[in-house]
Known about the structure:
alpha/beta; 10 helices
Amino acid sequence: xxxxxxxxxxxxxxxxxxxxxLDEPDVRSADLIVATGDHAAGPQPRAVLDRLRAxxxxxxxxxxxxxxxxxxxxxxxxxxxxxWQIDAWAARQLRDEDVALLAGLPHPVTLDVDGFGRVVFCHxxxxxxxxxxxxxxxxxxxxxxxxxxxxxVRTVVCGHTHMPFTRLVDGRLVVNSGSVGMPYGRAGASWAxxxxxxxxxxxxxxxxxxxxxxxxGESDYPDARAWAERYVRxxxxxxxxxxxxxxxxxxxAS
Length: 254
């Protein structure tokens, strides 16, 4: 059974943000770091994967939709001209071992966590790495999403939407740790700590100017500075993100 778990999600190839979170005392002292997907799709894909690998057995990587899509792009199984520009670029940067790692990641993962019992860690939802649920998703949609979960799973930890929240759903605790590398709502890296039956949503500020300069200097992505200015320094607001993601959770469907 794991006692203290640090949850990171959606690093999206942003090494300065990942390093800032890994330097947090509560992350350094965690028994396990669970990264719930979308690790490398961004301006520093190889560097981020190398940093995650260096954690060894202290880290458990869960598959996100972008991890699956990068592997498919790198293997020529998905058309590059239909992908986001930065995703197509990132896929070309991956080494064979990176592609094998991303393609082989599990989704979802269930762990016994002290104070929580069995916890499911996923990206979108337990049944689909790309499915969208939000803090204000209607209850019947949640019931559909969780229909196949065992009754003894009372906590679900997810990512994907880049916005941190905790809420109860018919007695189950749902946690979204937000995004490390592409936060929505406010600048800085979001993550979560599970310990002693309690959830803490955490936020790690870092020097955005230095991070943008570093990404622009270390990445070969042609639009690295503009990408970092948009997603690291001046992030999309929570309102923009909710407007973008809202239609994807089935709201308004008959």
